[in-house]
Design a protein that fits this description.
The structure is a homotetramer. With about 350 residues, chain A is α/β, with parallel strands linked by helices. Chain A contains 9 helices and 14 strands. Chain A folds into 2 domains: about 60 residues, 2-Layer Sandwich (Alpha-Beta Plaits); about 250 residues, Aldolase class I (TIM Barrel, Alpha-Beta Barrel), CATH 3.20.20.
């Protein structure tokens, strides 16, 4: 932590800051510059909120030096993590792993049709919501356990790993019973109790970034899970809120190299939520692979015009199959496998 | 809902859209313009996700007409709602109601000192976190029930109403037992299960806006609570995430006239979270009152330099008392009371 | 400047950074922390782009310490600047100075009607665009010099100071001939050649913040003007672009205390551009005064429904008069004058 | 344009809106829905500001239907435009065209070394700033005409097309004399006079998107150029301002399919400005190609650590050569050429 003093501060102002730093159990180091005096606080300050030093007399501002995350960082584990799923598939590694399926589980026919189609096209997992977080209380809220049972049936038929969302702690056991991957949605990335509960299971967790979370907050959310003993966290970027109107969310693909630079965890992209428009999805799938992502989470529906949720951003099973073909060619070019 | 067709669409494309609209149980109305044909869908579509019509052939885009919220809207109830608290104070109405206190409950001395000071200066409520949502798992997480007991004791001593955060459903009964106002934090505005659980209590709810929630999402979150039978919702603006760096959050005070235009619910401002810097707080308190807000939620600490959380944005009890004096003068000028 | 090394860096990596710092003519200072080594570069680095040190081996990131602006800062001049206008009015100081008028000068009747009404209600200046920056090339682009002549006539009749926009260097002499205050629009805040040209005149400059400019960029834009010898810069906040949809722009009033903390220049608020909706304007006028702004720039039109530009955000002359009355009461309460 | 009335509006309110619409020379069409009445205004309204109807009694809001841009749209020209450069290269079409070079022209050795290296690696154009828009007035402002002469010399030696920025109208003739492509920077996208001046030349224009411009504003800026008779506009995305801190700008690659959907103009990506960090650039180059962009604009420097500007985001000539190899493999996979 660096404390920057205002110009013209007196020795007693600097002394006061030094004293505060020592009260926190840290070592101080004063540097007198040409215009400014700065005081460095040396030691591991993670877990201390020292921000109030900002309010001490003649302090201008404070600059953190240490990154706040630990176990998710490459400092702790340099080699990339590879998450293994019960069906033998992996997330993170040479394989570019695609999980696809409908936004919501609607009925057996819809789910099995989709599952068989995405399996045939090369997906390794099936996504589908049984519990749906809906902004609007008047909209379809999901089939609940009946939906989870349909997902399990689809897994039995196709061998796909099942990825589905858990929205609250009281659903955790139920969802974990049926799912191969527990999805934490963007609206719950900051729901720390839910993160901790997911950390107590032994299931891989698909953690979606909050739509205005900073990268460090995203990695700290992963740490809430990992600190409970569950290291199997897959990061998922699903777009952020900006002033842009031609998309429902802005998809910031530079998070791929950023995560690779900071963390050992795999990162996948959700181009459906990440754009909001079906016609943009194939383009963003290809960009994600070329940029170095570890996989995709895509919304696919056999009849998007009649989807109960998110039809606007769901691609058809035909478009999915065609996109997988295109991804296969790019994968060859970047030494990956689809 | 208005469906805008692409230029050059054929009659069959329009017919297909008309058919989809009828499948949703709505009435269609086609308008042929000079450049574009549009198809209006008439009827109450709240609860239907028709967005997938966007993917029908030759559809350009879709435009919603109805606002999605109902019971929070002025359409349903024109006169402003006034929430009554057990200590006789009100939120919404002529009184500009100030709730103040520390970010976290730390110990008895800190809490009682603060409570007595803010009571004396004119606050009607005491805020203070016993359960703390922390981005960083290594930071102080709150005193839990011990903190709630201290809040109850402070209420007994001062007569202030207690406002404190509930983070998960399993804490709901416990927090509701001690609190006069249940606070739902910004990170949980989209935690729909938690909202519904708060709606099942009979306690007033202080609902903080998600830091990148749209206004309509904010009002829909209120409806999750109200639909369970609890009409006592107080909206709280606490700042949004933008590109601005000189603040921790950008405080958009135009939400005050916007809420007054759309809803009957009271709206209060949190200038502490809303700026992140103590020196900005008095200025934003005064602006909130002048803009027509119903009250404030402020972080006050007897010794911010040693606060365990949010010291940078907490004002001292002295600054609070001085600010209340200034608010009293402005209240006179705008026919309100502090 | 603080250079933060990655964990595990070697002595030679630190030595390389030290060498780079010395090549820039600065003094180095190495601090070995428990987890990280940081290297401080001491000396005035404004004007040097040292960012590339970020790319040196084992450098993690760089942290600037010095603020980049100088002559606009309170470090150089502690007391607030007061700009004097030819009609005797001032910007900055005890008086809360209101400049009002139509978005565009349309014709003599419209302009004089407005000018007389705003003068009577207490405005000190008349705004009105003769050259209009329009996003859409097919829309009304302003009356040009004919508009400037009408503004001069309105000044003659009412005694109001004239504030009008200059869009390009070739218009500078012409606009400066007629205007009392040269307005630089939000789209030109980063048009450095135009800023320098305005700095070569002796006219006060109303500098509008770019709609996504940072505070430091705003103050640096002021310095482009001031460095040419013109110290008469008035800062104007007119709203920023964010994800918010219920406003055309988000009005961040915390910039008022922020500017007061950093700079000696006056700051005024444009609540018309700053919200985009006429019904929000009175509320934001009052909030600006209470927050400590030095004045307002407001769009007023005698018949907004038929305004050629910006009718949606223009208030009527009646609403303006009523708002001025309300401002007068608040001014008393905050020891200011309207 | 659709005018949405408030619930409970009277017939006279609807009649008033109808009258306003007719005053604008448009045809009205009233639709009475179950909850709301809406009035459609039929006819080409581009060029009219009807927004003030929003302020008429009992009007809730207004919804535009027509896109405001014309000549840049696919409605006017369906096949993609291909811009031909004097050296025979093209922008738009099967070829993925890469323009590379230093942020600033610094001296002959730096420029020629870079030009020869990027030519050898497969670039078709050389970028380099002679006039530099600098946020900070104390920083290097470019070599001016001397820089342009060096660019011309590099073209002579390598055959690369020269792309360089023009910042103001008075520089237009000079820059157009030396350049093959006139670059309009992000800070000038809304500088309408400059756009019109570029439209009067016969040179291709590289138009960078304003860092918070909407897509429609970007295309309207292109129309300012095209309306003057110059159809050779190349759109360039260079990142937008958001809350994200791990990048200098957020690069929204979904703009590639969006532009392809709306316009016939080519679109290229600037991954250097678009991220701000050299280590992210190769990843974003590959993603841009896979997503369907028409080319790149990249900052390359032989010695980024000593670059006078933008060193942090400049890649070395070696990294550039390696990236071009990787792009070639991906180009094969997506039926393009590098």
């Amino acid at each position: 932590m660096i404390v920057v003093m205002k110009p013209g501060c007196a020795q007693q102002d600097v002394d006061h800051v030094v004293e505060l730093i020592r009260q926190y159990g840290l070592k101080d180091h004063v540097i007198v510059g040409t215009d400014r005096t700065v005081v460095a606080a040396i030691g591991d300050k993670r877990g201390l909120d020292m921000s109030a030093i900002e309010n001490a007399p003649m302090v201008d501002n404070m600059v953190p030096i240490l990154k706040p995350y630990k176990v998710a960082s490459k400092e702790v584990k340099r080699e990339p993590s590879v998450i293994r799923l019960p069906n033998g598939a992996t997330m993170g590694g040479k394989k570019f792993s695609v999980i696809a399926g409908p936004c919501s589980v609607e009925d057996e026919k819809q789910l099995l049709t989709t599952a068989e189609a995405v399996k045939k096209a090369g997906a390794i997992g099936l996504r589908g919501g049984a519990f749906k977080p809906r902004t609007n209380p008047y909209e379809f809220q999901g089939l609940g356990e009946a939906g989870l049972k349909l997902l399990a049936k689809a897994r039995e038929v196709t061998g796909l790993a099942v990825c589905t969302e858990v929205m609250s702690i009281d659903q955790m056991d139920l969802v974990a019973h049926y799912a191969d991957i527990l999805q934490i949605g963007t609206r719950n990335m900051h729901n720390f109790n839910l993160l901790a509960a997911a950390g107590k299971t032994q299931k891989p967790v698909m953690l979606k970034r909050g739509w205005s979370a900073e990268l460090k907050e995203f990695l700290l959310a992963a740490e809430y899970i990992m600190n409970e003993g569950n290291q199997q966290v897959i990061l998922c970027e699903r777009g952020i809120r900006t002033h842009e109107q031609y998309v429902r969310n802005t998809l910031p693909l530079a998070i791929i190299p950023a995560v690779k630079n900071e963390s050992h965890l795999p990162i996948v992209i959700d181009p459906s939520q990440g754009t909001g428009h079906a016609y943009m999805v194939p383009s963003m799938c290809k960009a994600s692979l070329a940029a170095g992502a570890d996989g995709l989470l895509i919304e696919v529906h056999p009849d998007p015009e009649h989807a109960m949720t998110d039809g606007a951003q769901s691609i058809t099973t035909d478009t999915f199959a065609k996109t997988m073909e295109e991804l296969r060619r790019i994968a060859d070019a970047v030494d990956r496998e689809v």
